[in-house]
Amino acid sequence: MRRIHVQNISVISIAVTIILGLACVAIFMQGRVQFETLQQATETYISCEKDAKQLQSGSDYLTEQVRMVDMTSDLRYTIEEKINAINEQLARPEDGMPKVSLSVGVAFADRPNPGENLFKDADQALYYTKEHGRNGCTFYGDKGTGAGADTQG
Fold first, then answer.
1. Residue that terminates a domain, selected from 57, 84, 99
2. Residue 8 belongs to what H/E stretch?
3. Do 80 and 138 meet the contact criterion of CB atoms below 8 Å apart?
4. Which residues, 6+ apart, have CB-to-CB distance to 68 below 8 Å?
5. Per-residue pLDDT tens for 36-65?
6. pLDDT above 70 (res 127)
7. Which helix (H) or strand (E) is 72 found in, with range?
8. What letters, b where the CB count within 10 A reaches 16 and e where it falls short, cover 38-60?
9. Same structural domain for residues 76 and 128?
């Protein structure tokens, strides 16, 4: 068996090799942590996306259910409080998750001067919320969102 003899290896070469090896390990570890955070955020997003698709596919059934429920503007305060509570919780993400917010537009059928389409009115209220900072709830007819609106904002 032959032995290989390494000659002329300087201490500097060994030190540079060790430093490069440690740098590679550090870069790998940092990338792994970032990858795990990204993977967790992606899994959460995919889960939410699946839920949204289920809601969307069941929208016809949901629409009929909403029509059957006598939901009046008396529930305005309750809806607003729930949306605000959800946004407060979303403002304090855990486990390194990114901050998100909830924007909602609401239109009640029992309002004065109802528009021709309840869903379009709710959508208009939602766009108002998004255009004015998100993270909230706007009711159709308020804040410049449609018929009978308070245009002062």
1. 57
2. none
3. no
4. none
5. 888 888 887 777 777 666 666 655 554 544
6. yes
7. none
8. eeeeeeeeeeeeeeeeeeeeeee
9. yes
